[in-house]
Amino acid sequence: FLRNRRVRPDEMVATARARTAGLVKGRHILAIQDTTTLRDDGKQRSLNLHPMIAVDAHDGALLGLVDAVFLSHVGGKKHLCKKRPFAEKESRRWLDATNTAASLVAAGAACVTVIADREGDIYEEFACRPVETELLIRAHHDRILEGGGALYDCMEDVAELGRETIDLPANPGRPARQAVLALRARKVTLVRPKRNHPAEAAELPKTVTLTLVEAREADPPDAVTPVHWRLLTTHTVATLADACQITGFYRQRWTIEQVFRVMKTKG
Questions:
Q1: Can you tell me the distance from the alpha carbon of 245 to that of 242, in angstroms, rounded to the nearest whole number?
Q2: Could you list the mean pLDDT of each consecutive 10-residue stretch along the chain, which spans 267 residues?
Q3: Is-contact 33 120, C-beta < 8 A?
Q4: Residue burial 164-179, b: 16+ Cβ < 10 Å; e: rest
Q5: Phi and psi at residue 244, to the nearest 5°
C-alpha cells in the first residue's frame, strides 16, 4: 500500500484533516505545530516531518491531525537560506500550517490558537496570519521595538500580575519537579526586520503589535536551568487569570512531543 505510487502523503493528510474537522465544532482548538527528524544518516541527509495537531484547549483531548509536510534535508545549504525569498524557504511551513488551521473555524471551531515553540518565531507568521486564527509563539529573537529598546529587556519595569505553580515533566537530564512562575504581561510593537529582498519586505507591515507574557521561575533550585518563557500572543492578557491561561495553553505544546515519542521511541 505505502509503495503504491497512487498513494500520496498529501491525500492521506487531507483525509485525516477532514476527520479532525468533524470533531472541532464548538471547541477552542489549540493547533500545535513542530518539526521532528524521522531519519538521519549522520552524513547531513535527513527526512523530517512537520505536523500540526488539534488539541482541545479545555480538556487537552488530542483530536487529530490538521496538517503535515515531509522535508528532505541535504547538508551544506544553510548559508543560502537568507538569500532565498520567503516563498522558497522551508520556514514558510509555519505560516502554511497556520493558514490551514484557519479552515477549522469554517468547520465550526469556536476559536483556533496556533502554538509553536521558538523555531516558529518568524515575522511573517505574525504579519500574515489569517484573521481566523490567534497565535501563541515562544520568542526566539530579541526583536527591536517601536520607540526604541529590545524585546528581551522590556519587562524590567513591569509589575508582576502574580504567581502560579506548575508541574514540569521530566526531560533528558532534568527530573520532574514543580516550579513557581512569576508572570508579567505588556503590549509590544515589533519592528519589521531587515530582509535581503527589500521589495518583498516592503510588502509586510512596518510593525506588528502583540502581547508579551513573561513567565520567569522564582527561586529555582540550585544546579537547574530556571524556567524562563517569553510568549508572544495575539490574545489579550490583562489579569493573572489571563496570563495563567496563556502559560497553560503553551504547556499543552507538550502533547506534540508525546506524539513524536510514540512515533519514534515507542513506535
A1: 5
A2: 87 96 98 95 90 98 97 72 78 96 98 97 96 98 96 96 93 85 98 86 93 95 91 98 98 95 86
A3: yes
A4: bebebeeeeeeeeeeb
A5: -65, -35
Task: Compute CA distances 28 → 31, 63, 176, 240, 261, whole Å.
Answer: 10, 12, 29, 20, 25
Distant-in-sequence, close-in-space partners of 227: CB < 8 Å, separation ≥ 6: 168, 179, 181, 215, 216, 217, 220
This prediction has a pTM of: 0.93
Residues found in the chain: 267
Whole-angstrom distance, CA of residue 113 vs CA of residue 134: 4
Burial string for 55-87 (b: 16+ CB within 10 Å, else e) reads bbbeeeebbbbbbbbeeeeeeeeeeeeeeeebe
